[in-house]
Design a protein that fits this description.
It contains seven helices and seven strands. With 209 residues, the chain is of the alpha/beta class.
Length: 209
């Protein structure tokens, strides 16, 4: 169990799963740049959180739900948590996370959503089999099953994020194609810094020879 003083933001898991250097830039160096993309995402989240609550038939909807997990050391907020009334009188908890763009090839968004589910399971003492990601660009929901594999990946990502943030060391950049979609590319400079290291390595090899 984690002490509340050691909690990290739940969003750090999404950053960690996408890129450890991005996670460190945001959560260690406190680096953040507002771009057109991030502004759209922020406005989307703010609008959702302002809704409060609503009911649609057998579904009760809560917006901007506070989350925490003593087990994983996480604190944050869920965009939407739906409670579906079941025939036996129970309620099925169903988290929904809103994203500005479109579904990603990796699991970083799914990890963030699964972390929300793990928080809710701990807080409410319930079992949550699945949730959904809503993407603003496609205007569609992507259903996510919280299977054993995703749960394990989420727990491991939380562990790695804690270790990274506690160490306070930002990993060196490794340029990949997905870097072009990162809002911190201008601060990270993956091409430039990686190239400098390559030149230094080359010179060291030449001197060594």
């Amino acid at each position: 169990m984690f002490d509340p003083d050691d909690f990290i933001q739940l969003s750090a898991l999404q950053h960690m799963a996408f890129c450890p250097r991005q996670c460190a830039l945001i959560h260690v160096e406190q680096t953040w740049t507002e771009s057109g993309r991030t502004a759209e995402g922020r406005i989307m989240h703010e609008r959702v959180h302002e809704e409060g609550r609503a009911s649609r038939g057998d579904i009760r909807i809560e917006y901007g739900v506070g989350l925490r997990s003593l087990k994983l050391g996480l604190i944050g907020k869920a965009d939407v948590v739906e409670f579906h009334h079941q025939p036996d009188g129970s309620w099925l908890t169903f988290p929904v996370e809103y994203k500005r763009g479109k579904p990603k090839k990796d699991d970083c968004d799914k990890v963030q959503l699964c972390a929300q589910a793990l928080c809710l399971e701990e807080m409410l003492n319930v079992s949550i089999p699945g949730g959904a990601l809503f993407y603003g660009q496609t205007r569609r929901h992507l259903d996510v099953v919280f299977d054993k594999s995703l749960r394990s990946k989420t727990e491991e990502t939380a562990k790695l994020a804690h270790e990274l943030i506690a160490a306070g060391v930002t990993p060196k950049p490794v340029y990949e194609k997905r870097c072009e979609n990162c809002s911190l590319i201008a601060e990270c400079l993956p091409k430039t810094l990686q190239k400098k290291r390559s030149v230094k390595s080359y010179l060291n090899r030449m001197i060594g020879d």
